[in-house]
Specification:
Elements: E1 7-10, E2 18-19, H1 24-33, H2 36-40, E3 44-45, E4 47-52, E5 55-60, E6 67-73, E7 76-82, H3 85-94, E8 107-108, E9 113-118, E10 128-131, H4 144-165, E11 172-175, H5 180-195, E12 203-209, H6 215-225, E13 232-236, H7 244-251, H8 256-275, E14 281-283, H9 288-291, H10 305-309, H11 314-317, H12 333-337, H13 339-348, E15 351-353, H14 359-366, H15 370-374, H16 378-397, H17 409-412, H18 416-422, H19 427-435
Parallel strand pairs: 1-7, 11-12, 11-14, 12-13, 14-15
Antiparallel strand pairs: 2-3, 4-5, 5-9, 6-7, 6-8, 9-10
Length: about 450
């Protein structure tokens, strides 16, 4: 019998890992050992690939999308791992293997799972998964103030740890709409910087102004209410003529809401980069909606209040690994859609950080007794996020932050009608344009 020799091609960039209190070699050893608790103890932002013999194990934080592709070679299979689809395709082409490629044959490593693959050749092995971020639903007391203190306390710890890793003179920006998530991030960041004795002149709140959108006024009202309006810096952009293919190329995705959101993110990052060529570090509030289940249930016919509150990680991970609706190609929830933040940031040379993606916050949110706290009432669910976050900000910083009605990023940067004119296409249209990238 022929002995196949499996090959691992790791195209991830180890320089992108931001590990806290642990070396990359030690992190790889923990992943390779395959013990979920040891992987859970890895702190920071990372994409880890480790191999022993025919076994490859992969783990990623929520903010680091990672893909893989199993190619067939004469000597044996080759497992190609990268953060982008086009990186995988380029490598295959360099080996004369691009005829094997299709974007739907790539697989996304789901966040918060230890993924194990055996490089053994035909028949292709199925990946196996072990969860390492584990919320414990119902373990937090049904007390909004106590939940807020714990949640924003964790947020503050994550922001402070991130700030301490930065160069002492590096400017710090917050992608800021004045909404609950970016508002809490900004207030807590300012509080942490003062506490750590950092110069407040390093801080700015960047708000996208794409014309007639309500976010600039909301951002100004928020900062005025907390006596920090001097930190506001609007970034103007003309989005009257948007080429969705540019957005699709950057994000490698076609989900309509994510394309719209990424369009605004790209406009903001491009504007910051043009104004500040050397700016690198940005915070944002991505993941805050997912943690607090703050999406309109009525916009998705597959959802009910029961499916939302009884699935602790629905918005972070989709319906769950191993379920009927789980897609190997794209994973689910924020695990998939974080490309809308990650890919534009990489494209424009920024290092972005959202504390809401850290396991401590994800687990805390998933440990809330949502059925009891909401009473299975939709309006009560929608109100809880503002109550929890504002109570926590008050407890941790002493600041009374205003709470405005939720609005998607793409509906705040420009008028919703103008956004529909600029981006009139359906998800099917976006999918066709995405597939056209790979004739």
């Amino acid at each position: 019998m022929q002995q196949y020799v499996g090959e691992l091609v790791d195209l991830t960039d180890p320089a992108l890992n931001r590990l806290e209190g642990i070396s990359l070699d030690e992190a790889r050893a923990r992943v390779l050992e395959g013990l979920p608790d040891a992987v859970r103890a890895i702190r920071g932002s990372y994409a880890i690939v480790a191999r022993s013999g025919e076994t490859v194990r992969l783990a990623r934080s929520l903010d680091r999308p990672v893909r893989y592709f199993l190619a067939k070679k004469v000597a044996g299979p080759a497992l190609v791992v990268a953060d982008r689809i086009d990186t995988i395709r380029t490598w295959l082409a360099s080996q004369g293997l691009d005829d094997q490629f299709h974007p739907n044959y790539t697989r996304m490593v789901p966040a918060h799972y230890l993924t194990t693959i055996r490089i053994v050749g035909c028949p292709d092995p199925s990946p196996t998964y072990e969860r390492f971020v584990v919320p414990k639903p119902g373990t937090l007391a049904n007390d909004v103030s106590a939940i807020g203190r714990a949640y924003i306390g964790a947020l503050s710890n994550e922001i402070a740890a991130w700030l301490r890793q930065l160069p002492s003179d590096a400017p710090v920006g917050v992608s800021f709409s004045g909404g609950i998530d970016s508002g809490a991030v900004f207030v807590v960041t300012a509080h942490a910087m003062r506490t750590l004795g950092m110069h407040m002149g390093r801080l700015k709140a960047f708000t996208l102004d794409a014309g007639d959108g309500p976010d600039v006024a909301q951002a100004r009202a928020f900062l005025d209410a907390v006596d920090m309006e001097l930190f506001l810096e609007p970034i103007e952009a003309d989005l009257s003529h948007v080429d969705p293919m540019d957005v699709i190329k950057i994000t490698e995705d076609y989900k309509a809401l994510d394309v719209e959101c990424a369009t605004m993110g790209i406009a903001l990052l491009r504007g910051i980069r043009e104004r500040y060529p050397d700016w690198r570090y940005l915070l944002d509030g991505d993941g805050g909606d997912e943690n607090m289940k703050d999406y309109p249930i009525e916009e998705n016919p597959e959802l009910t209040i029961r499916s939302v509150v009884n699935n602790p990680l629905l918005y972070q991970e989709g319906w769950g690994v191993g379920t009927m609706k789980h897609s190997l190609t794209y994973s689910g929830g924020l695990s998939r859609s974080y490309v809308r933040t990650y890919a534009p940031a990489r494209h424009f040379g920024f290092e972005c950080f959202s504390p809401y993606t850290r396991p401590e916050l994800v687990e805390l949110a998933g440990s809330i007794a949502w059925p009891e706290l909401t009473g299975m009432d939709v309006d009560r669910l929608y109100a809880l996020k503002g109550e929890i976050v504002s109570a926590g900000v008050r407890a941790i910083t002493g600041t009374e932050m205003p709470v405005f009605t939720k609005r998607r990023f793409q509906h705040g940067a420009m008028g919703e009608d103008a956004m529909r004119r600029a981006l009139p296409w359906s998800e099917a249209d976006y999918r066709k344009q995405f597939l056209a990238l790979y004739p």
